[in-house]
């Protein structure tokens, strides 16, 4: 059995669940890229793969994750090639795809499905869509991310595993290709597996609400946005958008505009105060 997750934090909690239930024993593999943002055109051929890698290099340049797009640490195509090889060599091997109800996991699921159709019947999905679990304090909650589920609750979640149907292998990749061809930069989950797309500036207006008349570290602004805003994304993407707004002269800045801790931002004098409602 091979388990696939889409977030690094999911790996540890799933491994703890495996320790509690030997029937879950298997390798845990992560799909690392965030397919909820960035270009998707021609994503399965060299041209599109190179364009996406180039875009990530631009987004990460001069920031906290500078160089990560080129250092080989994120290579989902290599990961999936190894998975396909294992499935072909061992006809008894199966895959469980774990996904919670968030745009990151769902986008990753769509991207991955393209490679696995030949193994229909051996690919299982555990989609925790609007399902209640108990947290560490014993209260009922609806998890948005897998890693927020206590390991013992994964033992209940495993009962949800079901084969991805032939129909899903036909319809879902078609839906993903439609999204890829729209050439938009941000994907938001509306519900179920329905993704809708917006421009690259989707988060900008909300991000501006956390920039005040007083100097704040960029890291604090981004942290506030990530913890309080309805729709969020990765901190690297938010940092990139903040830098673009600074480059456009929308805000005052002091310090070296590089890592999140290196510079401070505030509204320009005379700009009406914005308060995040």
Note the main attributes of this structure.
277 residues; alpha/beta; Dna Topoisomerase Vi A Subunit, Chain: A, domain 2; Arc Repressor Mutant, subunit A; 3-stranded antiparallel beta sheet
The number of distinct structural domains comes to 2
Low-pLDDT parts are 273-277
- Any idea of the CATH class of the largest domain? Alpha Beta
Q: Strand order, biggest sheet?
A: 2-1-3-4-7
What would the principal axes of the Cα set say about the shape?
globular
Concise synopsis of the structure shown:
The chain is an alpha/beta fold and 277 residues long. It has 9 helices and 12 strands.
Task: Give a written overview of the molecule.
There is one protein chain. With 277 residues, the chain is α/β, with parallel strands linked by helices. It has two domains: 2-178, Dna Topoisomerase Vi A Subunit, Chain: A, domain 2 (3-Layer(aba) Sandwich), CATH 3.40.1360; 204-267, Arc Repressor Mutant, subunit A (Orthogonal Bundle), CATH 1.10.10. It is built from nine helices and twelve strands. The protein has helices at 8-20, 46-60, 76-89, 103-113, 151-157, 166-182, 204-208, 218-228, 235-247; strands spanning 2-5, 27-30, 95-100, 123-128, 133-134, 140-141, 162-163, 186-191, 194-198, 216-217, 251-255, 263-267. The strands form four sheets. The protein has a five-stranded mixed β-sheet with strand order 2-1-3-4-7, sandwiched between helices. The longest helix is centred in the middle third of the chain and has 17 residues, at 166-182. It is globular, with a radius of gyration of 20 Å. The termini are far apart. 25% of the residues are buried.
């Amino acid at each position: 059995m091979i388990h696939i997750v889409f977030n690094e934090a999911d790996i540890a909690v799933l491994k703890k669940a495996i320790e509690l239930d030997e029937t879950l024993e298997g390798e845990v593999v992560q799909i690392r890229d965030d397919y909820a943002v960035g270009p998707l055109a021609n994503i399965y051929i060299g041209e599109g793969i190179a364009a996406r890698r180039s875009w990530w290099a631009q987004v990460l340049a001069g920031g906290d994750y500078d160089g990560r797009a080129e250092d080989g640490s994120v290579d989902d195509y290599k990961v999936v090639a190894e998975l396909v090889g294992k499935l072909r060599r061992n006809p008894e091997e199966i895959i469980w795809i774990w996904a919670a109800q968030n745009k990151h996991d769902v986008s990753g699921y769509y991207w991955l499905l393209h490679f696995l159709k030949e193994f229909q019947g051996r690919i299982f999905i555990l989609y925790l869509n609007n399902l209640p679990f108990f947290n560490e304090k014993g209260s009922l909650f609806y998890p948005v991310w897998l890693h927020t589920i206590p390991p013992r609750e994964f033992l209940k979640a495993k009962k949800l595993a079901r084969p991805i149907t032939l129909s899903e292998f036909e319809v879902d990749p078609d839906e993903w290709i439609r999204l890829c061809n729209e050439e938009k930069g941000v994907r938001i989950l509306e519900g179920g597996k329905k993704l809708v797309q917006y421009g690259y500036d989707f988060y900008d207006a909300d991000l501006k609400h956390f920039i005040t008349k007083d100097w704040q570290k960029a890291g604090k602004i981004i942290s506030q946005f990530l913890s309080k805003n309805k729709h969020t994304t990765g901190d690297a993407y938010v940092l990139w958008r903040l830098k673009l707004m600074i480059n456009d002269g929308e805000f005052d800045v002091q310090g070296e505009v590089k890592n999140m801790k290196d510079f401070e931002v505030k509204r320009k004098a005379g700009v009406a105060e914005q308060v995040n409602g």
